[in-house]
Specification:
The chain has three helices and six strands. It is α/β, with parallel strands linked by helices. It is globular, with a radius of gyration of 15 Å. This is Peptidoglycan recognition protein. Monomer.
Length: 178
């Protein structure tokens, strides 16, 4: 667990009963790119339902896809909690070509269909502030939608519309090299 993240909305890997990584690579810090995604699963509004989805994603990533760990750095539930994935320190497996220089934050649900909850939005914004305060994210980091970097619908139209209003959102990604 990244011990310096200390807010009540943060659910450690131990708390959601996650498996330890099989191997780790470390991210150079501070990171200056945040990629927002969605899981294209059901949404969740309770700790139990979110925990079950996060465990299922980790199982798929590690057993079927043979990843070292769950691919996302963090997952955000409709319950307003942030679930630790590969975390601030470890390279994730969320966006091919960008994993070694970015943090991947995935909202749990399909945001082509659903609106992100105000609690989820607030939790993600708190996570980003914490990342800057703790030195994990550069104060000048850029935030992009998954679809801006690879051919995907992620993070879904409704979430993409939301993140385009956030500070640090970068419209023109041509300066980002993979």
């Amino acid at each position: 667990m990244d011990a310096y993240v200390d807010f009540s909305c943060f659910v450690t890997k131990e708390e959601w009963d996650g498996l330890p990584p099989l191997h780790v690579d470390y991210l150079p810090r501070p990171v200056d790119l945040v990629i927002i995604q969605h899981t294209v699963t059901s949404t969740c509004s309770t700790f139990e339902s979110c925990k079950n989805i996060v465990q299922s994603i980790q199982n798929t990533h590690m057993e079927d896809l043979k990843f070292w760990d769950i691919g996302m750095s963090f997952l955000v539930g409709g319950d307003g909690k942030v679930y630790e994935g590969s975390g601030w320190l470890h390279v994730g497996a969320h966006t091919f070509g960008y994993n070694k220089k970015s943090i991947g934050i995935s909202f749990i649900g399909n945001f082509n269909n659903d609106e992100p909850t105000p609690q989820a939005i607030a939790a993600a914004q708190t996570l980003l502030r914490c990342g800057v305060e703790e030195g994990h994210l550069s104060p000048y980091y850029h935030l992009v939608g998954h679809r801006q970097l690879i051919a995907t619908e992620s993070p879904g139209r409704k979430l993409y519309r939301e993140i385009r209003t956030w500070p640090h959102y970068l419209e023109d990604v041509s300066s980002i090299k993979n």
